């Protein structure tokens, strides 16, 4: 059976299935040749699409240099699961070809007992650099930075810099600028490659360097790093400590990975699922993670059911209330979700603050009132035609206006409060909002109906 190398854009289920068939048939050399022609990201995708028991078989077919690159492309849980099956010697052989910041990602997922053994297998310089990266939180500029940096002094000529680069032979990837430092490694500015190449070689670095490019403090949150790269169209940025001493640099490839992780996190958080959950991982781990949010949702559902139970008499006497009840809650939920999404996006982009929050609240409530009034008229007319009851149409219309206004207000207030409490709004906002819109919707509709129709 022959396999075609997958395209560089994606690995589709047919290719994964074909590779699995080759492995099951025992054609190891055919599988090895196929894997060698694939990009590391494609191999990682294949591994994530194979049950855990077979991943080690695929891994053992990879060359050490390729294996390390594949390891970095795996999501965290899949990588951790695979790493725990490897001998320390095999792991050291795979990661020794990686850059220090990539090695740090692997080491952080190792069992505590295995870390000293891996560190002992590294040379002194790389071990010290790795320990430096590991000393910073993973979601900070220090955790993102790469220590492989080309620096120059301000008092040398461009000709000296060019000769230095030629002697060096190879410069790190994504090097769009050289970092200018003093003799104590304090950051002074940057020398863009285009300025280096387009200016007279007799000029000094100090004459053509840029001093207006701010470095990134090492404690900076990952989200703020992403924002700076996005707004300033950066390819790389220097990282400094509190004394302005150069520690390393952040490059666009690491920022893109961080952006993807944040985007995935927001999407998965809405369903209470981990962004790094292994598709073929442990049943117990997956069950434990999801059970927490299922439990929270159960509590909110019980709360909504309890509220409905307070109006049991009205529901028994007027069947139409039970039929129409979900309409009010559903419309409020959609209106609130629209606002919630906009607010979370504004928080992510750093566009919201205490200075403009009141204005946003006013605007969203007015939008809720306007849309609530519009659709209240539509629903009231439908209710009148359906049940031939004008009062019921007016009641559900009023309840819609109340719930949609409350929903838009909650869409602003909930993520704001959660952020101040240190809770991810994308993770918990949807659950809390659903509870609010359900409760307000049921209370407003059934409460008005009880007060007007039963008295």
Number of domains: 3
Give the strand tally: 6
Indicate the mean pLDDT.
82
Instruction: Return Rg in Å.
Output: 29 Å
Q: Could you name the CATH topology of the largest domain?
A: Tetracycline Repressor, domain 2
Number of helical runs?
Answer: 22
Strands in their spatial order, largest beta sheet: 1-2-3
Written description of the protein model:
The chain has three domains: 13-135, MgtE N-terminal domain-like (MgtE N-terminal fold), CATH 1.25.60.10; 151-252, CBS-domain, CATH 3.10.580; 283-453, Tetracycline Repressor, domain 2, CATH 1.10.357. α15 crosses α16 and α19 (319-348) runs parallel beside α21. The chain has helices spanning 13-24, 28-36, 40-48, 52-59, 64-73, 76-83, 88-95, 100-107, 115-120, 124-134, 141-144, 158-168, 193-198, 205-208, 222-232, 252-269, 283-309, 312-317, 319-348, 357-387, 390-420, 425-453; strands at 151-153, 177-181, 187-192, 216-217, 236-240, 246-251. It has a three-stranded mixed beta sheet. The protein has a three-stranded mixed beta sheet with strand order 4-5-6. With 455 residues, the chain is mostly helical. Helices cover 65% and strands 6% of the residues. Mean pLDDT is 82; it is low at 1-10. The chain has 22 helices and six strands. The radius of gyration is 29 Å and the shape is globular.
């Amino acid at each position: 059976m022959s396999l075609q190398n997958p395209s560089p854009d994606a690995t589709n289920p047919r290719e994964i299935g074909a590779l699995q068939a080759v492995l099951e048939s025992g054609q190891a050399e055919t599988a090895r040749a196929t894997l060698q022609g694939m990009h590391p990201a494609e191999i990682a995708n294949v591994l994530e699409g194979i049950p855990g028991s077979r991943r080690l078989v695929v891994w053992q077919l990879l060359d050490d240099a390729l294996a390390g690159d594949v390891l970095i492309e795996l999501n965290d849980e899949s990588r951790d699961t695979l790493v725990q099956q490897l001998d320390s010697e095999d792991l050291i052989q795979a990661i020794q070809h990686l850059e220090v910041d990539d090695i740090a990602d692997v080491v952080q997922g190792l069992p505590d007992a295995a870390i000293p053994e891996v560190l002992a297998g590294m040379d002194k310089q790389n071990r010290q650099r790795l320990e430096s990266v590991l000393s910073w939180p993973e979601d900070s500029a220090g955790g993102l930075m790469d220590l492989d940096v080309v620096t120059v002094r301000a008092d040398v000529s461009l000709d000296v810099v060019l000769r230095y680069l030629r002697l060096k032979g190879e410069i790190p990837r994504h090097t769009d600028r050289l970092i200018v430092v003093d003799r104590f490694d304090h950051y002074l500015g940057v020398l863009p490659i285009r300025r280096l190449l387009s200016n007279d070689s007799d000029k000094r670095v100090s004459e053509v360097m840029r001093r207006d490019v701010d470095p990134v403090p090492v404690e900076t949150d990952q989200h703020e790093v992403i924002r700076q790269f996005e707004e300033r169209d950066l390819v790389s940025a220097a990282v400094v400590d509190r004394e302005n001493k150069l520690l390393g640099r952040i490059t666009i490839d690491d920022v893109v990975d961080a952006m993807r992780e944040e985007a995935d996190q927001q999407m998965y958080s809405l369903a209470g699922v981990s962004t790094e959950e292994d598709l073929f991982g442990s049943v117990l781990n997956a069950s434990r993670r999801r059970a927490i949010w299922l439990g929270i949702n159960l509590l909110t559902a019980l709360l909504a059911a309890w509220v409905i139970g307070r109006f049991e008499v009205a529901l028994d006497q007027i069947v139409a209330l039970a039929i129409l009840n979900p309409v009010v809650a559903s419309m409020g939920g959609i209106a609130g979700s629209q606002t919630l999404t906009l607010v979370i996006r504004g928080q992510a982009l750093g566009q919201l603050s205490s200075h403009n929050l009141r204005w946003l609240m006013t605007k969203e409530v007015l939008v809720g009132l306007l849309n609530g009034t519009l659709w209240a008229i539509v629903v009231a007319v439908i209710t009148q035609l359906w049940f031939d009851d004008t009062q019921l149409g007016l009641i559900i219309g009023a309840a819609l206006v109340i719930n949609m206004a409350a929903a838009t207000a909650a869409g602003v207030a909930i993520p704001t409060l959660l952020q101040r409490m240190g809770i991810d709004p994308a993770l918990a906002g949807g659950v809390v909002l659903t509870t609010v819109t359900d409760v307000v919707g049921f209370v407003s509709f059934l409460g008005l109906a009880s007060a007007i129709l039963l008295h």
